[in-house]
Amino acid sequence: MKKNYLFLIAIIGIISVSGCRNAGERKAEKQADIMTVKTLGLAYLEEFKLEEAEEQFLHFIELAPNEKLGYANLGLTYLRMSRYDDAEKQLNKAIKIDPRDADIRLILATVHRMNNQKEKAIAELKKALEFSADHVKTLYELSEVYSTMSGEDAKKQHHEYTRLLVEKAPGNLVPRLNFTDILIREGDFDAALEQMETINRQFPGFPREAVEYYNSTIDLLRKKDKENAIIQFTIFHNYLKVSAPYQAGIVDLKGPGGSLIGFPVITFDRKGIMQSNENLTLLDVIKFADASETAGLGIIPGASSAEYPALAVTCDYDGDGDADLYAGSHDSVTGEFRHFLFLNEMGKFTDITKESGLKHSGYEYGAVFTDFDNDGFPDLFIMREGGDLLYRNDGAGKFEDVTVKSKAGSPEGGKKALFFDMDHDGDLDLYELTEKGNLMFRNNADGTFTLSNQGLEQPRESTVSSDALFGDFDEDEDIDFIVTGLNSQPIYYSNQRQGVYKNIVNGSGLEDNYNASVITTGDYNNDGFLDVFTCSSAGGNPVLYMNKLNGTFRKEENSGSMFSSLDNAKIYDLASLDFNNDGFLDIMAAGEAASADGRGVFLYYNDRNGGFKDVSELLPLTVKSSRQITVFDYNDDGDLDAVISGLHGRVTLLRNDGGNNNHFITMKLVGLKAGSAKNNHFGIGAKVEIRAGDQYQVLVVTDPQVHFGLGNKPRADIIRIRWTNGVPQNIFLPGSDQALIEEQTLKGSCPFLYTWDGDKYIFVKDILWRSGLGMPTGIMGGNTSYAFADASDDYLKIPGEFMKPDKGRYSIQVTSELWETIYIDQLELVAVDHPGNTEIYVPEQFSPPPFPGKKIIKISEKISPASAVDSKGNDILQFVSEKDDIFYSWFAQGKYQGITEMHDIIIDPGRKVDKEGLHLFMTGWIFPTDASINFAMSQSDSLKSVPPLIQVINRKGKWETVVESAGFPQGKDKTVIIDLSGKLLSEDTRIRIRTNMQIYWDEIFLSNNNPELASEETVMQPVSGDLHYRGFSKLYRKGGRYGPHWFNYSSVEKAPRWRDLTGNYTRFGDVLPLLTESDNKYVITNAGDETTVEFDAGTLPPLKEGWKRDFLIRSVGWVKDGDMNTAFGNTVLPLPFHGMKSYPPSPEDNYPDDPELEKYNREYNTRVVDVEEYANAVRAYEKN
Predict the structure, then answer these.
(1) Could you give the 3-state DSSP secondary structure of residue 138?
(2) Which has the minimum average pLDDT: 30-44, 232-246, 808-822, 953-967?
(3) Is 808 left (phi over 0), alpha (psi -120 to 50) or beta?
(4) pLDDT per residue over 151-186, tens digit each?
(5) Average pLDDT over residues 963-977
(6) How far are the Cα atoms of 227, 275, 347, 646 from residue 292, in angstroms, in the given order?
(7) Which end of the chain is more exposed for a tag (fewer CB within 10 A), N or C?
(8) Domain CATH for 67
(9) Are 795 and 883 contained in the same domain?
């Protein structure tokens, strides 16, 4: 994302502002003059008209001698003139006014560097970091300066500042590649691997030629082959240097280069200049100017009649940081409809249609950029007579027609298309309006779509729709959408999840509006709920609907008077935008006037008090009519511009001059791809909340570029992203113009078990892992299938050294810390005493019912493998020879979390083994899929999860499968045990384990089960149980980044973390009676809850000499996570019970009608949990 490089000049329009002042408004006139001079100076500076820029900034200094902006930009002007001494003088004046401004110190450091004064430059840059430690441009400059210097200290400094830059600018490809290069040359192979894997997860697909060198680098780093790794990485690096993301990253860090050295300062402290009428004064200096010709859009032809309106849509399709443009218009000369693809280079548009691969003809109704295949490169969907078209962006500047292959779109041509994640499975689905009815296309995540309106409740009346939009109107985390049409009742689709929508328009407040042909949405009063505004193509009828904080709406009674200027116009499109960056959404309307000389394009200013004021005079008079509005920041100067598509062809670019006098923040969301794919790449449909001082805003992401105005607040205090999979992510004190990268967050894993080890509580394992209430497993015959409803009933091993008595009792903590509701029905402890030279194990792999129960395996000798290799023949014995938290990870990530490439581990015991009672033991952990990933995978046959299968060599010397599904670890640090009795088919005792699940093995060995070995078991019932709120343990990765998520009990955060499943939970206090039997009387716990359970150590016999004591924990209960695609994943109800056949419950699965259960629910489950605290977290946030 480039920032603040181009301020095209509209001198007449700007200067005229100061001439329109009333003589009695001298103060306001001076304020307007200051902003006008600033705008002119910056425009001249970016046009490299340095003498003119110098004149303006000198004038600015005369008007505002105590304002740093004038001196700073005058200094930059002199820098570009190579007048270094003059530049230094002016910059020092600016620094005297504001010593803490890192941008100004960066310019001064550049002056020193250009003047061959490296040490002074370094000193200035380090001074800047004292005040602004996360100033990425300064960090980059320091990194670059040290990279040109010799000596060990310079190397260390280069390493450190590059590392810091990666930390502060995680979404920029440039420093990450530079840091990887440093790490490889230093021989830090593991850290270099981590950077390479991050690059693969975060950034759009590599150039095709680079993939080979990426893979080679990975292999060589694993083998610690430094010299060859440097060679392969250098080639990979060079290929990426010519990619658009890399070039955009360079511009972010050092500017466009060439003569435009340095970054101008564009904001200033208006508090000392404007004491009153702040925003009205700003309105006085804002104008929208027609920049179509100067920007290169004048070649788009006009039409002879309104029968052929133009179209225009924008998106940064090549990833270079500039918003590009696709447009179409009827050519009255040739009689044909012509389409254009314009490449934006710093505000100048160049027609590249011929070389783009866009080859089609016919009149087009509309178009939309969308990343349908989730590869990070926006594709193009075109609605046209004769059938829609879908072009796939190949990432190298070309488009490929994949219409037939994808099966997307109407064969007759649609009128409006929405791409959003309708079923919350991580990819963008298509909802299209057509003359013959509306169509829903489900994205299959394999490049194809399936036409299916099955999940949509159809309206009772026949409708012809003309507009639609999506958003979370009821604040329940899932995406709803509204469809409107002239002479039709709106359709208000409320998301019921899993691709099912219910029309709830009746009673919503929208039901009586039969004239709403166009609609827009936004949180106009900043209360956190989306409002809507509608108009009519039949003329006027503007209605502002304010959300009643529950997804229903009230009609603003004075809508007609506020928007009375629309009464004499037919409105064809609406847009919500903050054109003056004051933090409140304004409205633009486009259509045609009833009279020939009337206005057809309107702008309404949000007065921040519930009203809107017509400020259409800010728009040029030449724009009389329009069919479509597209809002974007075309010149990256921090205010929103607009493209108006004309009714008679042509498009008009309206450049916003002056809107950036208020502060702003821009960002783009980046959903992870390889090894995640839980959210679409650009975060379309995610909700972004922001708080700056006392100002709160929220919007739903509909475009890759996200923009917030901040008013006079210099920066935001907090941003919360609520991704489309429902997971929240907080960013504190965010910088502007940055990529906000999705965190791969652990959101579901069952309750955690902590035990007292004699000194502290330590995390041991997660329990109840067999239960997955409402977890989708596939789609059969159009219906979703779900995991079994049986309660989890498990025995898991607790090594004796992890469990010590305290004051005569064994104490455990069972915590709920993830996005789930836990139903704990029974807990018991089993002490197993056995000779010190033997070991006990229990099967800890996931398997469907019937469960193995208490099945203890006793061994006296481990047979560790003599060799172990992977699919590529790599020696991996170091990873699996012993339990040491060094995990095997040499496999490529698949598209989704939980899925990898198919990979093998082949172990060889190296000697003959006793086949009787032979068992295979595999200890490790799994990073599982989740409900939404399962839902996504079930929509296509191209990707399936393959649990570990066991193969051996048969008598023909071929691999043969002897165990089809060995199961997989039930979460963290679990042992999978496979009985190989009678399964070794030859004298060759090699064993192959094959899977594509994301399992990280720590230890693999063979041993013979000997049931005759001595042991004694004692079952212990709990003697106390207490439920209370605790919070959330600090998370880390045990054994490095390939190790499982682990938890530090002694470090806890109290604040809520998840959007809780709502309903009645068990009240705090004594819950012992609920834990002693498996009887449907369970403890219902919420995220942050802890259940302390104690067992009487006095019930155990004395430990025999030479023996040791291990434990088994038995847990019975259910787990339901809050995933968007979990059945009833947002509520505690319906309650599970033993014997139920399915979940969600079938009509036959009725909760038992039992007086004892009624009494239990009445007495225990009285704690009501709602979402208010979570929903208001950002609104109520107070900066420390």
Answers:
(1) helix
(2) 30-44
(3) left
(4) 999 999 999 999 999 999 998 999 999 999 999 999
(5) 96
(6) 53, 36, 11, 12
(7) C
(8) 1.25.40.10
(9) no
CATH number, domain of 907, equals 2.60.120.260
User: Which tokens belong to 839?
Assistant: 């070991």
pLDDT tens digits, residue range 800-853?
A: 999 999 999 999 999 999 999 999 999 999 999 999 999 999 999 998 899 999
Verify that 873 and 995 share a domain, yes or no: yes
C-alpha separations of 1112 from 799, 832, 1005 in Å: 8, 7, 22
Q: Are residues 1032 and 970 in the same domain?
A: no
Question: What distance in Å separates the CA atoms of residue 263 and residue 141, rounded to the nearest whole number?
Answer: 12
Least confident of 1045-1049, 1153-1157, 1179-1183: 1179-1183
Q: What is the pTM of this model?
A: 0.90
What amino acid is encoded at 637 in this protein?
A: D
Is residue 1182 pLDDT above 90, yes or no? no
Cα torsion angle, 265, 271, 276, 277, sign: positive
Q: What is the pLDDT of residue 121?
A: 94
Tens of pLDDT, residue by residue over 1131-1149, are: 999 999 999 999 999 999 9
pLDDT of residue 5: 39
Q: In this structure, how many other beta carbons lie within 10 angstroms of the beta carbon of residue 509?
A: 18
**What residue type is assigned to position 881 of the chain?**
S
Q: What is the CATH number of the domain that holds 185?
A: 1.25.40
Residue 156: per-residue pLDDT: 96
The token pair at 326 is: 């696709």
| Residue where a domain terminates, one of 96, 125, 158 | 96
Determine whether 63 is exposed, middle or buried from the number of CB atoms within 10 Å of its CB (0-12, 13-18, 19+): middle
Which of 261, 276, 300 delimits the end of a domain? 261
759 with 723, same domain? no
In a domain, 755, yes or no: yes
CA distance 41 to 21: 21
273 band by pLDDT with thresholds 50, 70 and 90: very low
The single-letter DSSP state of residue 260 is B
Pair of tokens at residue 1056? 């809520």
Do the Cβ atoms of 861 and 1007 come closer than 8 Å?
Answer: yes
Q: Tokens 């207490």: give the residue.
A: 1026
Q: Is residue 866 part of a domain?
A: yes
Distance CA 1121, CA 1111 (A): 28
The residue written with tokens 């079994």 in the block is: 788
Distance CA 684, CA 678 (A): 12
Nearest residue to 700 via CA among 559, 579, 585: 585
Inside any domain, residue 487: no
> Going by C-beta distance under 8 Å and a sequence separation of 6 or more, which residues neighbour residue 1111?
797, 798, 799, 800, 803, 810, 829, 830, 831, 832
Tokens 């955690």, located at residue: 752
Please state the domain count of the chain.
Answer: 5
Q: Residue 57 gets which letter from DSSP?
A: H
DSSP category for residue 1012: T
Whether 909 and 982 share a structural domain: yes
From the number of C-beta atoms within 10 Å of its C-beta (0-12, 13-18, 19+), residue 849 rates as exposed
**Tens of pLDDT, residues 425-467:** 999 999 999 998 999 999 999 999 999 888 898 876 777 899 9
The predicted pLDDT at position 366 comes to 96
Pairing assessment for the beta strands 1022-1029 and 752-756 based on DSSP bridges = unpaired
Domain that holds residue 162: 134-261
**Span 1054-1073, average pLDDT:** 96
pLDDT of residue 304: 64
Q: The CATH number of the domain where 687 resides is what? A: 2.60.40
Looking at the fold, whether 1004 and 878 belong to one and the same domain comes out as yes
DSSP code at position 416: E
Instruction: Judge whether 837 lies within some domain.
Output: yes
Q: Give the total residue count for the chain.
A: 1184
Residues 817, 869, single domain; the answer is no
> How large a percentage of the chain has pLDDT more than 90?
77
How would you classify the pairing of strands 959-963 and 974-979? unpaired
The answer to whether 373 touches 351, Cβ cutoff 8 Å, is no
